[in-house]
Amino acid sequence: MSNMQEAHSFIIAIDGPAGSGKTTTAKALAYALGYIYVDTGAMYRAVALYAQRRGVTARDTGAVCALLPEIDVRLERKDGTQRTLLCGEDVETHIRTQEMSKAASDISALSCVREAMVDLQRKAAAGSDGAVLEGRDIGTVVFPDSPCKIYLVADAETRAQRRKLQLEEQGIAADFGTILREIEERDRNDSAREHSPLRKADDAIEVETTNTTIEEQVSMILSLVMKRIDQYRKGTAA
Ligand code: DC
After folding, report:
1. What is the CATH number of domain 3-237?
2. Which of 68, 102, 110, 233 has its CA 20 to 30 A from that of 177?
3. What is the b/e burial string over 91-122, where b = at least 16 CB atoms within 10 angstroms of the residue's CB?
């Protein structure tokens, strides 16, 4: 076990493209297992928001890197819901827009941003009994020694349809074609970048969710994870 993973922390890594059901799955696992939940995408979104407020774009690498020491990002749970704090301000609603999805994808390609966020993500999981982290590079870079890696996939149309429903539930009108284009663009951006691109870790279990409901997805992954935890405990106890 590397020193990146605390001796007592069981790290569950959930990776996959936008709209593959990572958040619902990761939250449900964390809840069922009593583990902490770390939404690493929220951290990149918060950095993107900070840069936008300072008038800095991801194209200006030097300016983004220079901002990083000022940026304080924290994830907190309050009354059962997650809040993303940016320098103490709850920015949860501000970071969930389609504009911030794109901005986060762009800014997350910068290696200085990745280094700072990966460090934060490892610290967020450290010291817990167990943690569920969702993102793009959890199984490949953040916790490559995780004994339990899940890689979610679903076709782009299905993911766009899910995103449309989510937005409509929040009272936001959404056009399917626009969402699909944005999802495909983000897939390309997140997979083609030089640093920590989105990809399945060799030892991750790939779960295809195009034709499953979110309830089926969660229950299937939960039983898979429970088996892994059991095997891991037997292995480490032996
Ligand atoms: O999971 P999300 O949609 O909130 O993530 C927003 C963007 O942040 C995503 O398009 C790419 C980036 N990201 C990343 O590069 N690495 C992660 N571990 C999580 C998110």
Report:
1. 3.40.50.300
2. 110
3. bbebbbeeebbbbbbbbbbbeebbebbbebbb
